[in-house]
Amino acid sequence: MIHPTRTNLLLLKDKGRAVSGSIGILKARRLALIREFLAATLPFMRSRDEVRAAYARALRELHLSLGIEGDEFAESLERIASRDLGVEIVDRSVMGLHYRDVGFRGEAVRSPPERGYDYRLTTPHLEEALHLFETILGEMLEIAAYESRLKRLGNEIVRTTRRIRMLEERILPGLRREIREIGHYIGERERESHYRLKRFKELLTGGGGGRRAAP
């Protein structure tokens, strides 16, 4: 325990108020982080469901296309239609938290003429499959960005919760205990001083009343 003086008692009380204020600020920040996390979770889950459904449709259309056009024809189109997406990693921030967003230059989904082959020679099944796979590619990049953001928010929520718990369960109770102990010590010391002063006055009063006047 620190030295039990009134100055230290006042300092401890000020520190206790500061800690209580910090807890309030951290709780407000955690609540804002949780709201941001929940707001990002819904589109993230929706995107995953959409990708799963689109992938099933794309495989079905591709299977139908291969049955008509054959594997060799599809492989030749793959070499023609391939491209460099130019994926970019961009640093972003949300509520002061830095995370990395994934994107790319241009659009993921191309029109049939932009794919570099004569789409009039292909079946609608192949065109639909390509359209769906390109759509999935764009969705996957968005999911990657959501995952990075959600992971950063989740880690910060956990870290903030630990700080709140440490302040509430360790720091603040310790300060309150020291404040009680010092307050009790100072109170006992003041009562003892008051008792001594009272006894001293009683002795002075009693001694003055017992003197006899000279003849």
Q: If you had to describe this structure to a student in words, what would you say it looks like?
A:
Helices cover 75% and strands 7% of the residues. The protein is built from 3 helices and 2 strands, in the order H-H-E-E-H. It is rod-shaped and about 125 Å long. Residues 208-215 have low confidence and may be disordered.
State the share of residues found in helices, binned by percent.
over 70%
How far apart the termini lie comes to 62 Å
List the helices and strands in order: HHEEH
Which residues sit in consecutive blocks of at least 5 with pLDDT less than 50? 208-215
Shape call: rod-shaped
| Percent strand | 5-15%
Main β-sheet: number of strands, strand sense, barrel status? 2 strands, antiparallel
Could you tell me the radius of gyration in angstroms?
38 Å
Kindly report the average pLDDT value: 83
Q: How many strands appear in the DSSP assignment? A: 2
Strand order across the largest sheet: 1-2
Quaternary organization: single chain
* Helix vs. strand class: mainly alpha
List the helices and strands and how they pair.
Layout: H1 6-69, H2 71-81, E1 87-94, E2 97-104, H3 124-209
Antiparallel strand pairs: 1-2
Helix pairs in contact: 1-2, 1-3
